[in-house]
Amino acid sequence: MKKVLQKIAQKFRIAAENNASVAEPYDFNKSNPLGGGGERVDIQLNKKIDFEKLDIYQKSHYSRYEFAKQKIDNNEVCGDFACGTGYGSIMLSQKAKNVIGADLDKTVIEEIKKRYSTNSKVTFLNENLLNLNYNQYFDTIVSFETIEHFKEEDIYTLFSIFNKALQPGGKLIFSTPYHQEKTEDAVKMGFHLTFYITESVIKKWLAVTGFNLLEFNYQNYQDHQIVSELNSKDFIITVCQKKMEA
């Protein structure tokens, strides 16, 4: 995983040097707080997207939301939790009836409210996910690259909150780095708190928090496609379903 991270960083630097990213910074100040490398991706959907010109982070994130959009039905109510810069919520709204996007970063939320103010189907909230208090409200919840930012004991709490927020039979779609090693470099970066996430670990979390596994899929930085079988796995994408009440 360390070599993968090094390669990713190198590609990202090259892309930046060559101005390969189609998503221009949302420059409301010089520090551009909407940017964040691989940890927070910014894609502006109020302009035409050329997928081939996106950087490696953008391609992976964009592909995940395209995958999620295929999994939802028309007229669903969706939650996009840890929505980041909001482009994923907007993508989901192209099919869903309503989308609520929530993120911990107040600055980002305030700016994307302005950016996407004309989209009446999406509501953005500044909220700690552990404080969400919905009861059987959503048909589908999407949460990409989220759970690794929580300690494992809090992941059980988070999944229980998601379960409560879903209608009976509702779906949860989430992604996380696949079997990321807990290296000294990874710990120093400070982004992730839970490591070594694999199929067996996820199955344990789902069983305890009231979900049935529907499918595992995988993604890597080479082609960004999301498929059921993959030799080189950078991410695991899980689709599961809230257990029906007896």
Largest sheet: 7 strands, mixed
| Computed CA radius of gyration, to the nearest angstrom | 17 Å
Helix-strand sequence: HHEHEHEEHEHHEE
Please give the share of residues in helix.
25-40%
Task: Report how far apart the termini are.
Answer: 43 Å
Instruction: Name the overall outline.
Output: globular
CATH fold-level label: Rossmann fold
Question: What is the CATH architecture assignment?
Answer: 3-Layer(aba) Sandwich
Alpha-beta classification: alpha/beta
Strand order of the largest sheet: 3-2-1-4-5-7-6
Describe it for me?
With 246 residues, the chain is of the alpha/beta class. The chain has one domain (69-242): Rossmann fold (3-Layer(aba) Sandwich), CATH 3.40.50. Helix content is 33%, strand content 21%. It has seven helices and seven strands, in the order H-H-E-H-E-H-E-E-H-E-H-H-E-E. The chain has a seven-stranded mixed sheet with strand order 3-2-1-4-5-7-6, with helices on both faces. Helix 5 packs across helix 7 (199-209). The longest helix is centred in the first third of the chain and has 16 residues, at 2-17. The termini are far apart. The model is unreliable at 1-32 (pLDDT under 50).
Q: How would you sum up this structure in a few lines?
A:
The protein is α/β, with parallel strands linked by helices.
